[in-house]
Amino acid sequence: MSAQQISDPIRIGMVAGEKSGDNLGAGFMREMLNRCPNAHFEGIGGPAMTELGFESLFPMDRLSVMGFVEPLGRLPELLSIDRKLKAHFVKNPPDVFIGIDSPGFNTQFERHLRDRNIKTVHYVSPSVWAYGARRIKKIKQATDLMLVLFPFEQSIYQSHNIPVEFVGHPLADMLDPQDDNALARRICGVEGDGYLVALLPGSRTAEVKRLAPLFLNMATKFQNMTYRVKFVIPCASQEIRQQIERVAQNLGCDDQLVLLDGQSQTAIRAADLVLLASGTATLEAMLLGKPMVICYQVAKLTYILASRMLKIPYVGLPNLLAGEQLVPEYLQRDANVENIFAEVRGYFDDRQKWAPTLRKFDEIREQLARGADKRAVSSVLSMLQIKQVVE
Length: 391
Prior knowledge:
- The chain has two domains: 11-168 and 370-383, Rossmann fold; 181-368, Glycogen Phosphorylase B (Rossmann fold).
- The protein is globular and about 65 Å long.
- It has a seven-stranded parallel beta sheet with strand order 3-2-1-4-5-6-7, with helices on both faces.
- The chain is built from 18 helices and 13 strands.
- Helix 9 (181-187) packs across helix 12 (264-270).
- Helices cover 46% and strands 15% of the residues.
- Helix 1 (19-35) links the parallel strand 1 (11-16) and strand 2 (40-44).
- The protein has 391 residues and is of the alpha/beta class.
């Protein structure tokens, strides 16, 4: 069944602060334009959104900052963007404003608009389950509707009487682990039965600075072993590619390494094992049915603050969704060459031990594949009381 097109124009304000939000926004826009061809979108978005006609008033990468301490250096610029964008939307009120993830920026932004009678939606739950319920009060004041990606998040908002819809995750609708992995391996230069390990040290310069040397130092330990192992790194930008090339040259592991421009999903799909930073990539690896080892390092002060606030035993999405440790996690000092090398070598020595974990990955994928883009658009139109006629 498909919803009848809505001819009336709809103005939608949106802010996405990083690549994953840009992809979510693009999926939402594509489905909304199918139903409302006259919809207009503006705010802050990335290349996937602008390709669909989104009017980005500021570059998305200016919001891409993480941690507790790191944003301080960019505070004047962030405040300036916040002030100008608020003035724009107050002067030109949209029918609805949708903040996509980036809760540090979007939650207070949504409250400002909602206080001025502009409907607000927050797409992707902040980590209220990680830091306790302290954020819930602010969210309740800021948003008219919360769209969540994971099933365990829905009950949290329902218990605080916040309108919420579990829409599933768009990646679960898109990624099929049975697609042609052989093509991905050819792209990565793997022939025959050699092993390939995908290294994903992150998409931000600070992440790569910490994790790329760690991952590549681990790779050098396989140079004199009988295993035929190659490593592939998808580079999020030319700057990051150059950063990784310098590290690889210094360590002398160029011959073992394949660098891709972007194509992170290709690298994951081609790999036997994925070594990666905590984040959305862990979800991609799980949905593609790949064994993985999660590592993360942040600024020391950020870690001290976060560790005191965290209310959960895991940081990786596969472990959080399962409610148990399906995949290894190494944080801060535990993320070292010896521990990671032991995990990678252990995988090659006994691949069958991953079979129960991969079956669990399949179960979680089925839970998340719900047609997220369609559900998100239907929820927003229902909130706006725009009638949807189903054929």
